[in-house]
Specification:
The complex is a heterotrimer. Chain B is mainly alpha-helical. Chain B is about 65% helix and about 0% strand. The longest helix of chain B is centred in the N-terminal third of the chain and has 36 residues, at about 65-100. Helix content of chain C is about 75%, strand content about 0%. The longest helix of chain C has about 35 residues, at about 145-180. The chains are: A alpha+beta, B mainly alpha, C mainly alpha. Chains A and B meet through helix 1, strand 1, helix 2, strand 8 and strand 10 of A and helix 3, helix 5, helix 9, helix 10 and helix 11 of B.
């Protein structure tokens, strides 16, 4: 039957944070459960009916009591809210120096791409002690990328990118589950996360048969799909240059601006007429059906590589305790 | 099914005989019984699906059914239980029967609409039943897109049509209850003299009226997408799959309060009668029902914390979700305080009330866990959530429903159920329930996802415990089914007020006459006044 | 002609104690029903608003393909029908049988005109290939945005279709009322069904008052 485990492993920086919050809630829950169970049991025995003719004296409501048992629970719940919100907020802000991995979910498998070009199916090898950010999308229905040992979960939605991040703290092998029902083999859409010592990870990266980094593959696609005919580096083409585009705010025709993030680049490839850059017209054809989601991710990585390097803000460095020294 | 009346007194059961007199009845009491039969059928249907699920989960690699079938089983279990059992159960059976009597009315405001409501539930049920028999539906009861609109090859539309039609049943019942409470209270029955069961059903009716139409239009949009591919939820056509989740949960979150508020109303009645005291903090309990109804509409986004909903929306919804927890806590404290210095009877309905308070407390407290953003990221879509909502729906609502059935059985049928067997069943249910669902909290935190047909070996022990509990629970549900039927023929004859309860429904014979009261009562005192109910008294406390 | 008291007791259902109670219940019942209808239409309005916010340019182009003048004319027709409905209710309050029938028939005819114009508009959409489906095409919109344009029209047909369905039901209700009036069912003391039917009719009118600007008038300047 397998060994009986009652509590999951802690393998990321989030895990002990979430577990501490859990302990607090458990204490509160157990306290109130015992209180209510105990009171009911005690009253039921102490005041049991001894004669059918009994008529209890009627106490008239206690305003003080009502206020007490409204305010105290409210106070406790506000602590729960604030504490949980703080963790959630941090979970939504990957550090700038996070190692990026692209994930494409489809019925019923996970396809993962490392920046260096390594591809994996249903498995993810990652180094210990570094923040890892996943950029994810689905090819078909909604899935969800769930790693119980890291206490992270994020839905993977078709038509957009979603992100999650974590920093592993313990080498080992951890379950990966799809956590949003997605059809027949939903419970088969599982895999393993392998957290390795940094040196072992480097060896693993070097040992595989990678066919170029994601950005390099993206560049090849950029040329083979003739993107470079219109998007020239010197901005002399029919389309705007993409150098330095990623992360900038873009002026749109008809007013308004948009931040050039991964979702914007993806939309620009698949539905170019949705947002037109100011000063240009809706000439770009759509590539929907001509590129897979994985290829779009490669193109996104290529466009990102055209951006001048942004300085890493010091604030986020402090949020990763015990991080391995960056050696890239 | 026809109760043999010992006396030749006319009452609602013997006033007329024959199929037509039941199928064309306008009597809210008969309609309540029609509903009772219907929801009981769906309960056992949903229970059959649950049994198969739990048997399949005994082993990590399944083997009893295929994955396709398993996915249909949990979908149809959810559809049957939510839409055709839990939502109608207490309001349409006990509410229909007793709400008019409790306020001193002869019937609901619109008896023919009441009958129409029942037919709509039956017709809707038939559509969904057809879908289940013709091959089933495998989208989950939540029908998330684009799986349900573009990928599933099962009977989505037939099932959805059944739910759509049943939704109108719910809306019309709600409409009927609200109008009845506003316009048909007997002279002297002011709002604050009404029993808390009426307040609870009134608050529930408001939710039914405001929420269910949104589900209806969501289903319409789902149909249009599935049939015409209009691109509202399909991202390949520019649609937004997460919009479906917002529309769906805008109804389905308030729906859970439709399922639990009437149960809380029953508990107020039981706690009061079997402590022989008014409910402590009557005004607060009544106000809590209304607060839950209002706040319940503001929290739907807590089902979307990891859906790619914005972080800020998540913060707002988590914050508000804690607000909605407070009125429920207030009720639990007030019920417990009612017991203090009361005269506590251990009759079966009271045992169910105790069970409810205990299990609802646990379920409600675990709600605080899932409302917590940091924790929900880990436990959403796992067995933790399944355990949470089953503690409330089964440990809460179904316990209250059974408690109410036992409490009002003598009034509805003129017969007593066998007390010994009833107490035993209550205990079996309580134990079986906890054994079934407590291990699921642990499973969930360990990371066992929901809707999984096969699972890693290390989760097996907990699944085996859960299935063992489910078999005990099943026995606990079957026994009352049997003795209730038995009692119709051989149960002891019941007096007008076997429990010494207050409330206008106990001032008429058991079973009541067709028009409830010989003459319209004039109310001069508040609810839960036990003076004068039990003859000579001994003052205590 | 039945006396007021007699008419009252003829119409009083047994669950009610007084005619006043019955009238209160019927009126409240209709108001609540209308609130459920608001929630029902509201879901579609929400979906429309969300997508209009996401694809403003495409929706503006699509909206401009609707004939504003016809839409405006239809709006006037419906407003007039609400007016004639009010006159019918007034006539009922005064016990004027022939006036009731006259105004109900006028209302019904105006409703019919609205539906007829709607059918013409839909036919026009069919001819222009604006019906969502395989043959859909909207000029002035890029190929990769056709899906979004189709979405506008899907919501257009869903919302106006649902509205038209409610109008048809309203026409049915009016027909029944006319027949009942001819049988002398209503008096100055008992005209509740006319009253609540009036509420329903006004509601269907109000839904159109919201639909017209949302569908026909948005951002015409943006095109």
């Amino acid at each position: 039957m397998g060994t009986l485990r009652l509590f999951p492993e802690q393998a990321s920086t989030f895990a002990p944070e979430v577990d501490h919050l859990l302990y607090f809630l458990l204490v509160v829950a157990v306290f109130f459960t015992l209180l209510i169970f105990g009171a009911i049991f005690y009253f039921a025995v102490r005041y049991r009916r001894r004669s059918e003719q009994e008529l209890p004296h009627v106490a008239h409501g206690g305003m003080a009591l009502e206020i007490l048992w409204t305010v105290i629970p409210f106070g406790l719940t506000m602590v729960m809210f604030t504490w949980g919100a703080a963790i959630f907020f941090r979970q939504s802000r990957p550090p700038d120096d996070a190692l990026n991995i692209d994930v494409v979910g489809k019925q019923w498998m996970w396809k993962l791409q490392h920046m260096e070009g390594q591809r994996e199916i249903n498995e993810l090898h990652i180094p210990l002690g570094r923040p890892i950010k996943l950029t994810m999308t689905s090819e078909d229905v909604i899935h969800s990328f769930f790693i119980p040992a890291f206490r992270t979960k994020q839905d993977v939605v078709p038509g957009r990118y979603s992100t999650t991040w974590f920093q592993p703290t313990k080498a080992g092998r951890y379950h990966l589950f799809c956590a949003e029902y997605c059809g027949t083999r939903h419970s088969g859409m599982i895999g393993w996360i392998y957290v390795m010592e940094p040196r072992d990870y480097e060896d693993w990266l070097a040992g595989g048969t990678a066919t170029g980094t994601l950005a390099e593959n993206g560049q090849k696609l950029f040329q083979s799909l003739a993107c470079n005919n219109c998007h020239k580096d010197d901005n002399s083409g029919r389309g705007p240059t993409l150098v330095g585009l990623f992360g900038k705010n873009v002026q749109l025709a008809g007013g308004g601006t948009v931040k050039a993030d991964e979702n914007y680049i993806r939309e620009s490839i698949l539905q170019p007429s949705a947002k037109i850059v100011a000063g240009y017209s809706a000439d770009m054809p759509t590539f929907q059906g001509l590129v897979t989601e994985e290829q779009v991710l490669q193109l996104v990585e290529y466009v990102k590589s055209l951006a001048p390097k942004s300085p890493a803000p010091t604030a986020t460095m402090e949020s990763a305790p015990g991080a391995a020294p960056r050696n890239r | 099914m026809i109760t043999q009346a010992v006396q030749e007194r006319e009452h609602y059961l013997n006033a007329s005989y024959g199929m037509k007199s039941w199928l064309l009845t306008k009597d809210h009491k008969r309609i309540g019984l029609l509903y009772l039969a219907t929801v009981t059928l769906f309960f056992f249907l949903g229970g059959a699906f649950a049994t198969l699920i739990r048997i399949e989960l005994l082993t990590p690699t399944g083997g009893l059914v295929s994955s396709e079938t398993y996915n249909k089983l949990f979908t149809m279990h959810g559809v049957a239980m939510v839409f055709f059992f839990l939502i109608p159960s207490i309001p349409a059976t006990l509410g229909n029967f007793f709400l008019p009597m409790m306020i001193g009315a002869r019937d609901l405001a619109f008896p023919r609409i009441n009958l129409l409501s029942w037919y709509l539930l039956v017709i809707g049920g038939l559509f969904s039943l057809f879908a289940m028999l013709a091959g089933g539906v495998d989208t989950g009861w939540t029908f998330y897109t684009p799986y349900s609109t573009t990928y599933s090859n099962t009977w989505v539309i037939a099932t959805g049509l059944g739910i759509f039609i049943a939704g109108f049943s719910s809306i019309l019942t709600g409409l009927n209850f609200v109008v009845t409470v506003h316009t048909m209270r007997a002279p002297g029955m002011t709002w604050f003299r009404m029993p808390l069961f009426v307040w609870a059903n009134y608050a529930t009716a408001l939710i039914q009226i405001l929420g269910t139409p949104v589900l209806a239009v969501t289903i319409v949009l789902l149909f249009c997408e599935r049939v015409f591919h209009i691109g509202i939820f399909d991202p390949t056509l520019g649609g937004d799959p997460v919009l479906f989740q917002h529309l769906f949960w805008f109804y389905s979150h308030p729906a859970v309060y439709i399922m639990v508020l009437p149960a809380m109303g029953v508990i107020s009645e039981l706690i009061s009668t079997f402590s022989r005291k008014p409910v402590f903090g009557y005004g607060f309990v009544a106000a809590s029902s209304m607060a839950i109804a209002v706040l319940g509409f503001l929290v739907w986004g807590h089902h979307l914390f990891v859906s790619t909903q914005s972080v800020y929306a998540g913060l707002v919804f988590s914050f508000l979700s804690y607000f909605v927890a407070i009125p429920s806590a207030i009720k639990v404290f007030n019920w417990t305080a009612t017991l203090y210095k009361g005269s506590i009877s251990y009759a079966t309905p009271m045992l169910y009330a105790f069970g409810f308070i205990g299990l609802f407390t646990i379920g409600g407290l675990t709600g605080l866990f899932v409302a917590c953003l940091g924790i929900d990221v880990h436990v959403t879509d796992t067995y933790f959530v399944i355990a949470h909502f089953h503690y409330i729906m089964v440990g809460g609502t179904i316990m209250a429903y059974l408690g109410g059935l036992h409490y009002w059985w003598p009034k509805m049928t003129g017969r007593m159920y066998p007390e010994g067997w009833a107490k035993l069943s209550a205990l079996v249910i309580f134990l079986g329930f906890n054994l079934t669902f407590f291990p699921q909290f642990i499973l969930g935190y360990l990371g066992m996802p929901r809707r999984y047909h096969v699972y890693p070996e290390e989760f097996q022990v907990l699944h085996v415990l859960s299935t063992a509990g489910a078999s005990v629970l099943a026995v606990g549900y079957v026994i009352p089914m049997m003795y209730f039927v038995w009692s119709l023929r051989w149960g002891k004859m019941a007096a007008a007020n076997p429990w010494g309860a207050s409330g206008l429904e106990w001032h008429t014979p058991s079973p009541p006459p067709s028009h409830n009261f010989e003459e319209t009562p004039v109310v001069t005192q508040g609810a839960y006044d036990y003076r004068g109910v039990i003859g000579e008294v001994i003052e205590v406390g | 002609m039945a006396s007021p008291a007699h008419a009252e007791s003829l119409a009083l259902r047994e669950q009610f104690d007084t005619a006043a109670q019955q009238k209160d219940a019927s009126t409240l019942g209709m108001w609540i029903f209308l609130i459920t209808e608001i929630m029902f239409f509201g879901g579609m309005f929400l979906a429309y608003t969300v997508y209009r916010g996401t694809f403003p340019l495409v929706f503006a182009v699509a909206s401009s393909s609707l004939n504003v003048y016809i839409g405006a004319a239809n709006t006037v027709v419906l407003l007039c029908s609400s007016f004639t409905m009010v006159l019918a209710v007034r006539a009922a309050q005064l016990g004027q049988q022939r006036a009731i029938i006259f105004f109900l028939i006028l209302t019904l005819l105006l409703g019919g005109v609205f539906l007829g114009v709607k059918a013409y508009e839909w036919n026009e959409k069919f001819e222009e290939h604006h019906i969502p489906g395989a043959t859909f095409h909207l000029e002035g919109v890029a190929p990769d945005q056709q899906g979004h344009a189709q979405l506008f029209f899907s919501l257009y047909f869903a919302m106006t279709g649902l509205h038209a369905l409610h109008m048809v039901i309203g026409v049915g209700i009016l027909t029944v009322l006319i027949l009942q009036t001819r049988k002398g069912r209503f008096t100055a003391d008992y005209m509740t069904p006319v009253d609540v039917a009036g509420l329903y009719w006004h509601f269907v009118d109000i839904i159109w008052i919201f639909l017209f600007p949302l569908l026909y008038l948005i951002d015409r300047h943006l095109k």
